[in-house]
Design goal:
Largest sheet: 9 strands, antiparallel
Structural class: alpha+beta
Strand order of the largest sheet: 12-11-10-9-14-15-16-17-13
Mean pLDDT: 88
Helix content: 25-40%
Length: about 475
Amino acid sequence: MRRWRIPIAFAALLGLAGYVYFFEIKSGEEKQKKKEESEKVLSFQNDQITAMTLSRPGETIRLEKSGGHWTIQKPLPAPPDSDAVDRLLTSLQSMRISHDLGRQPDGSPYNLQNPPVSLELTVQGGKQLPALFLGDDSPTGGGAYARLGQDGQILIVSGAEALRGATLFSLRDKTFFKFDPAKLAGLDLRHDKEEIALQKQEGKWSLQSPVRAPAEDSTMSDLISSLERLTVTEFVEEKPSPETLAKKGLAPPRIKVALHGEEWKTDPQLSVGASDAGSLYAIHPGSGALVKVSDSIEPKLKSSPMDLRKKDLMPIQRWDLESLRITGALPAALELKRRGDKEWDRVSPDPGILPDEPVDILLRSLTDLKAEGFLDKPSAKPGIYGLDPPHAKLEFRKQGEEGSNPSVLEIGKSDGHGRIYVRQNPWPSVLLVQESIWQRASEQIGKVVQEKPQPAASAQSQPASAAIPAKK
């Protein structure tokens, strides 16, 4: 008999566990779900909603969804802010009934006789959910008075703030430009009688007018990012008259920006007019509406060619450099090729392996070369600048582009005022650079030439992880 006690006890335990699970836990979960469902003001899933009408005295906003995309139909056709619509629907799902006050013959005490806000939702198949009416906030602070349907119970609901705050402006798409910065091929700026044309080729921006010159990457990135993030702060007038545009400084525009790219059949434009208390009047490129945008973008839109052009002479970031050849600075040419992360091959003179430190110091000194002035209409005789032939020539190649033509800097003579002439091929301008910076770079070129190398054959025989100490 004893041998049956354990199986019997185990079976009893299983039975008890099953009872607890099915009758206590699972039943409790189902009760909780039913309770939560009963507390919902509106029960739906976001993807079920095909239309939404939000009404206030004097204003009706209607949105419809077709093919998975929302559009604003009333009070005017306009693209919506899809994220704002989704957030509103999610907040409606989160609304809960705090108290049920039952049916009341008079909704006036709750401001539900002529409610300030009403909402109608249509689900798939054309079925409408009960209309929701919002009245005053309850004096106890537990939420807002509401009613489902014209004759429904008076409820106190929580989570109605998003519905109260939903307006045409909050639900409307406020993006100014919709574009992919990677596909942008050109950009024109016009302001204060200055016209600037910029072009992007092979991922690099350059000025094409009023001067041909490389553009500063970080400045262009900042400008393009500002245009991409530009948003409408106020829709002033949907169809402004010529008189209104003239009053707002938009006939003609004070500032004009045009974007060029393959993604547009017609290049979008930004027309900016007068300022008004921290804002700028502008014409929305999609709708032609008179709008306001933040005036924080104005300094970028009024950039000058000097602001936009590149002043660093180093054509390649030093960590992206594959090889460097310098001729004219010393009797013998210095040619270096990258060898891993910590070493360089000195091809000439005196071939061998160099540690990274002296070469890195040289590259840092070349990075300090910056243009302080520009001769955008230089003489047709480059010899007067010491550039025919140049006093020194620097050729840079980027990693992964070993077979391409190098980027070239040509160093000319001193201008007699502490600066030297430099030409950056293939650009036509002659640049003026501090002579003292080039002298420091020249000194470091000499140190790299004098650095005692380790013969290549000896280096190849060492383990790959062996470190070659720098000369001290």
